[in-house]
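Progress note, project year one: complex with iron/sulfur cluster.
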Amino acid sequence: MTQPLSRTLRTPDELVAAGLVPAGAREGAAAVAARYAVAITPAMAQLIDPADPDDPIGRQFVPDPAELRILPEERPDPIGDLSHSPVEGVVHRYPDRVLLKAVHVCPVYCRFCFRREMVGPQGLGTLSPEALDRAFAYVASHPEIWEVIFTGGDPLVLSPRRLAELTERLAGIGHVRIVRFHSRVPVVEPERVDAALIAALKASGKTTYVAVHANHPRELAPAARAACARLADAGIPLLSQSVLLKGVNDDPEILAALMRGFVECRVQPYYLHHPDLAPGTGHFRLSIAEGQALVASLRGRISGLCQPTYVLDIPGGHGKAPIAAPFAVRRADGVYEVTDYTGATHPYPPATD
Ligand code: SF4
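Model obtained:
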């Protein structure tokens, strides 16, 4: 970086000027930017080492021509949002909860994004007032909906006033008990997390959770840690959400440091996602066997507080499935073979003499 940044980088020329894309690679970055949204906040840009072409933060945000290689198994809606959308902006995949996607804008655009065909300036946009009315009417008319999850896009790009409008509307729906926000803002734009925003996340009579998205321990910089502390101090329980990504966190030490970092920030490790089959993201994907080995490497070696659930969103919209390798396998004789944290196996119940 030649000088400290004060605003989000959005164009190939800005990336070149900031030293994040070599001048000779400008055309490749421009070809990607013409297809998929680009944004790198100052907080993330200053974490990227421009001298390291494999920088794990840069890899998440700097456009890469590899994104234009679309593989046959990849799909525009990898987790089947659209096939489970009863009204615009709502995804009702499981009985007791819905996603409410009020906005399809993000403070940063992740190169591996599972909704990359829906987010950004050319994406699905922000719900109109009428569409928002229909979304809340759907929630109100389905008493089985216990939890509403605001996602997008990133709901925390909305102003506190707009957020408060959303939470106040939920406050009036008795059967909704839990309001959850999924966001990258506490990490990538931590200065947004101020008292007004925190107050707006709370809905009268409901419990608010915030799921914080980060993928590398360096993202949990002092400002991000302070933003998490402001949320936690305000009594908002925090959960983590990460994606297992080749070249970013596919390393036992990095993954352990990330999970420990979350716990230090009072963010409970929750989901570690296997990367979805989003278009042009093949260079981020590892095999499930590799993912299982990485997740197994956390077990026992680091605190039980630091263990996320490794999940796959089944393509087609069939929901999440935990995919960690089982630690107890039933043998043909009915005895279980149980694997300890060193990888050694033990029969259960143990043999009697
Ligand atoms: S913040 Fe979430 S929705 Fe937005 S680009 Fe990143 S992964 Fe996609």
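The pocket of iron/sulfur cluster is lined by residues 106, 109-110, 113, 115, 119, 152-154, 184 (CB under 6 Å).
The chain is about 25% helix and 15% strand.
No further modelling is planned for this target in the current period.
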